Amino acid sequence: MSKKHGKHHRGQKHGRGVTDGDDLNATAGSDRPSTARWASAVDTLAESEPAALRGHRATPIVAAPGVVAVEPGARFDLASVEADADGGLDKAWAKEALDTERARIVALQERLYAERSRSLLLVFQAIDTGGKDGTIRAVLKGVNPQGCAVASFKVPSSEEMDHDFLWRYHARTPGRGMIGVFNRSHYEDVLVVRVKGLVPEAVWQSRYGRINDFERLLTESGTTVLKFFLHISKAEQKKRLEARIADPEKHWKFDPADLVERKSWDAYQQAFADALSRCSTPDAPWLVVPADHKWFRNYVIAKTVADTLAAMDPQFPEAVKGIAELKVPD
Ligand code: ADP
């Protein structure tokens, strides 16, 4: 699809259809389309919308050793994944291979940005010290900052609390051509919220289905959703917390609240296992990454991102016709 075509299709035709079509009572003869005309415009749009269809097909590719894709609909036992697994890889090799995967990501991201038709959302969840920040830094190093947006979700503001729980996340999903990164995500609303009892159980229980619907909306709209759970052991968390206490350069990362949260380790593991079991879908599966070894974690995630982008196969837009004959005026 040419850039021009894509832009026109999305920005104008789609926009006009939705705005005019919102008024379903518009009568024939007015300058607005009738309901029937509106419906057929939507049909035409769906049939001729390669971006959405291609985006829908571009499900995550999991070909890296040691990464476990949670089977949709199955009960998932988090303890079945060894947090210190390394897929039998050699550390020095994996560090070099990481550079190769990063180079693939950078090249493919340029195409994704130029195509401006689809997007990729990377979701990172982990227990405190699980390595979300380090992963984002390692995997996305070198990516054009203009084509990538990271959203870090903290305790909701009062404005965010005044809305439905998905409002703040939906507002930060990546636009066409972009890679979006969620450092924590809509899953917090079935994790910390559940563990700390911030809402009644009936409320958080209702959220798993809503999350699946939300992610289906995204995938059917041309966003490929890659969800990584960084799985560390309780012993590794202890080591990382101790390192933050011992090293003055890491003091800024230390939050005494993490020591309190650690007491709820088992409750968090249960909440993670439920979220992974109930929200792993064919289009947006949960990927569990053994994350005690940072070098292993970085390599397998970079490879999964690169493979998934390659499967999306973004294309540069067609050049303007006759470009080779064009002359730039003096
Ligand atoms: P991080 O640990 O991600 O580096 P912070 O130390 O600022 O960042 O922690 C963010 C905090 O916000 C975490 O304790 C997390 O549980 C909390 N949080 C995120 N989303 C929500 C939410 N929807 N409701 C309540 N707390 C949340």
UniProtKB/TrEMBL annotation:
<keyword id="KW-0418">Kinase</keyword>
<dbReference type="Pfam" id="PF03976">
    <property type="entry name" value="PPK2"/>
</dbReference>
<keyword id="KW-0808">Transferase</keyword>
<dbReference type="GO" id="GO:0016301">
    <property type="term" value="F:kinase activity"/>
</dbReference>
<keyword id="KW-0066">ATP synthesis</keyword>
<dbReference type="InterPro" id="IPR027417">
    <property type="entry name" value="P-loop_NTPase"/>
</dbReference>
<feature type="domain" description="Polyphosphate kinase-2-related">
    <location>
        <begin position="90"/>
        <end position="315"/>
    </location>
</feature>
<dbReference type="InterPro" id="IPR022300">
    <property type="entry name" value="PPK2-rel_1"/>
</dbReference>
<feature type="region of interest" description="Disordered">
    <location>
        <begin position="1"/>
        <end position="37"/>
    </location>
</feature>
<dbReference type="InterPro" id="IPR022488">
    <property type="entry name" value="PPK2-related"/>
</dbReference>
<protein>
    <submittedName>
        <fullName>Polyphosphate kinase 2 family protein</fullName>
    </submittedName>
</protein>
<feature type="compositionally biased region" description="Basic residues">
    <location>
        <begin position="1"/>
        <end position="16"/>
    </location>
</feature>
